[in-house]
Amino acid sequence: MPDSIIKDKTQVNTDIISMKYSYEQKKIIININNILLEMYGKQGWWPVTSKPGNAPVYFPGREGRRISDKKAFEIITGAVLTQNTSWSNVEKAIINLGKENMLDIRKISKSGSELEELIRPSGYYNQKAQRLRAISKEIICIGNIKSLRTYPTAKLRTLLLSWKGIGKETADSILCYAFNRPVFVVDTYTKRLFKSLELPFENYDEIQGIVHQSIQPSSSEYGDLHARIVKVSVLKQTEKFLQILKSRL
């Protein structure tokens, strides 16, 4: 379903409730969102596979729509695998898992050393395999992905953060893209961009707070803004973007 009809608009991060930002700062955030949309259009994040063994693909125009429980678990898997590596390496691991029909929560929970070998391209494969097994077992213990969907956003975030190896960026990626929750993901690219604009850039909660207070709650809006910030950074077009932005302030 479109995220516009998701009822849970709970403040996800209680640390940002009392934070105050100026009108000028909020205007910059709105302009960032609008200009990046003009430059790149919708990005269709998070990429998922269309068939087992295929590479994950993007679906522009379908941002914020509910996905199947199986695809939600694939996103959770990808969010863990992408830690400290490039997405191209994650794709290789996802393809390997798909070819062996291992993108399955129960199979991963019971997996042996074959899991390490399949995700080897993502790096830190021993550590990531342990985390994926543990996360899979945690979800099964709770019930399933469907059970997690019933959790209010703040409660689900707290649960995700309690899992070993899941920090704020990974937890919020899972919330936004796997569970369609209105949560903005803060990464290194965002911090660099905000620093160049003299916006809050050091504290995760401050960065998330200014976005949440500037743009209406929406998993599609927050998720796509994050995707476009990654895009402008990866393409090394930040200077071009900043020139456009400054001309509108």
Task: Describe it.
This protein has helices at residues 23-40, 69-81, 87-99, 105-109, 114-118, 125-142, 145-149, 153-162, 168-178, 188-196, 204-214, 219-234, 238-248. It is an all-alpha fold. It folds into 2 domains: 19-44 and 183-248; 69-178, Orthogonal Bundle (Endonuclease III, domain 1), CATH 1.10.340.30. Residues 1-7 have low confidence and may be disordered.
Helix content: 55-70%
The overall number of domains is 2
Beta-sheet strand percentage? under 5%
Spatial extent as radius of gyration? 18 Å
Q: Supply the number of helical segments.
A: 13
Spans of at least 5 consecutive residues whose pLDDT stays below 50 are 1-7
CATH topology of the largest domain: Endonuclease III, domain 1
Oligomer: single chain
E-strand count: 0
The CATH C-level class name of the largest domain: Mainly Alpha
**Class by alpha and beta content:** mainly alpha
The H-level CATH homologous superfamily of the largest domain, spelled out, is Hypothetical protein, domain 2
| Overall mean pLDDT | 93
By CATH, the architecture of the largest domain is named: Orthogonal Bundle
Give the topology string: H per helix, E per strand: HHHHHHHHHHHHH
Shape: globular
- State the distance separating the first and last CA atoms: 36 Å
Largest sheet: none
Name a few traits of the molecule.
single chain, 249 residues, mainly alpha, Endonuclease III, domain 1, 58% helix, DNA_glycosylase, catalytic activity
Secondary-structure blueprint:
Layout: H1 23-40, H2 69-81, H3 87-99, H4 105-109, H5 114-118, H6 125-142, H7 145-149, H8 153-162, H9 168-178, H10 188-196, H11 204-214, H12 219-234, H13 238-248
